[in-house]
Specification:
47% of the residues lie in helices and 8% in strands. The chain is mainly alpha-helical. It has two domains: 2-79, no CATH class; 96-216, Cell wall hydrolase SleB, domain 1 (Arc Repressor Mutant, subunit A, Orthogonal Bundle), CATH 1.10.10.2520. Strand 2 (204-209) and strand 3 (212-216) form a beta hairpin.
């Protein structure tokens, strides 16, 4: 994972891990591939941090808060989006609700950039939070006549061994945790750039990401 961290930023990243987690930050450093640097700053960091008694730092778990916190540390250390997605593509299984988002990202946007995949995930979340659509993420995705890959409320299969599926999982974890900026809260619609649906005429265009054009009211 060292290749994901910009040159010259590694020492700051190592120090950040120790400042947040104390000596148990070495566990996170192993995950991030910066253990030698963390070991090198242990003596300095421990002078200003208190010891952490837990065996595994909370950030190594997959709760929304832990993903957001860890992603924040890594972004400040210079990690780009593709590295963050890779970092969070493995771990505990997604909840059923989050899995619906991942399936939608996989079928709707696996050929798009990670930014485009993140935007699709956020549109689903925005709809569920709007009060204008079903209140659950699965309800949004399965709502009739909304997502073309859904047939009679059923999802087609995904190749769970594929790189595209692993990326969809990483994107979903980051989106659900609100760990990476994406389209704004009011953005609840999108379409491919090769079609021109009439409903877009009453909406405000937000931006075009890859082959998808996103809108808000």
């Amino acid at each position: 994972m060292k290749k994901f961290v910009r040159p010259g930023r590694l020492p700051a990243f190592a120090a950040a891990i120790l400042l947040v987690f104390g000596s148990s930050g070495q566990a996170l450093a192993q995950q991030a591939g910066t253990l030698p640097l963390v070991q090198a700053v242990v003596k300095t960091a421990t002078a200003v941090t208190s010891p952490v008694t837990t065996t595994v730092p909370a950030l190594l778990q997959n709760s929304d808060a832990s993903v957001a916190n860890e992603a924040g540390v890594l972004q400040r250390a210079g990690w780009p989006l593709y590295a963050l997605v890779d970092r969070f593509s493995a771990g505990a299984p997604l909840t059923d609700e989050a899995n619906c988002i991942a399936v939608a990202v996989y079928h709707e946007a696996r050929g798009e950039s990670l930014e485009g995949q993140m935007a699709v995930a956020k549109v689903i979340m925005n709809r569920a939070a709007s009060g204008k659509y079903p209140s659950s993420w699965c309800g949004v995705v399965k709502q009739p006549w909304q997502f073309s890959f859904v047939h009679h409320g059923q999802f087609p299969s995904v190749d769970q061994t594929s790189d595209a599926w692993h990326k969809a999982i990483g994107v979903t974890r980051l989106a659900v945790a609100n760990a990476v900026p994406s389209v704004p809260t009011g953005c609840m619609w999108y379409h491919a750039d090769y079609v021109a649906p009439r409903w877009r005429n009453n909406l405000t265009r937000v931006e075009k990401i890859g082959a998808h054009i996103f809108y808000r009211a």
